[in-house]
C-alpha cells in the first residue's frame, strides 16, 4: 500500500515539475519576443537625424515575419508624456543606415536599444 502511494506521489511531483518547466519556457520565449509585431504602420518619410534620440531593430521571429526599425524622437507625445516613436519603412535609406549601425555596434545582441549618438555624427 505504501509503495503504490509513494509511486503516485512521485508521478504527481513529476507532472508538476513538467508543467512548471513548460510554463517557464513559454514565459521566457514570450519575454524575448512580443506577442505580435510592434509596428502597425510604417513611416515612408525619413526623420531628420537631429531629432532621433535612440532606435531599436527587431529581427523577424515566430510572431512577426518582418524586421522592424523603431526610432524614438526628441519630441514628446502630449497624451502619453513619452517621446514619440516611429516605425520606419524598410525601403528608406535611413533605415539601412540604422540597421548597419545596429549590426556594427550590437554584434552580440546584448542591447535592446541603441542611443543614436553611438552611431557617430550624421547631419
From TrEMBL:
<dbReference type="GO" id="GO:0006955">
    <property type="term" value="P:immune response"/>
</dbReference>
<feature type="domain" description="Chemokine interleukin-8-like">
    <location>
        <begin position="34"/>
        <end position="105"/>
    </location>
</feature>
<dbReference type="InterPro" id="IPR001811">
    <property type="entry name" value="Chemokine_IL8-like_dom"/>
</dbReference>
<keyword id="KW-0202">Cytokine</keyword>
<dbReference type="GO" id="GO:0005615">
    <property type="term" value="C:extracellular space"/>
</dbReference>
<dbReference type="GO" id="GO:0008009">
    <property type="term" value="F:chemokine activity"/>
</dbReference>
<dbReference type="Pfam" id="PF00048">
    <property type="entry name" value="IL8"/>
</dbReference>
<dbReference type="InterPro" id="IPR036048">
    <property type="entry name" value="Interleukin_8-like_sf"/>
</dbReference>
<protein>
    <recommendedName>
        <fullName>Chemokine interleukin-8-like domain-containing protein</fullName>
    </recommendedName>
</protein>
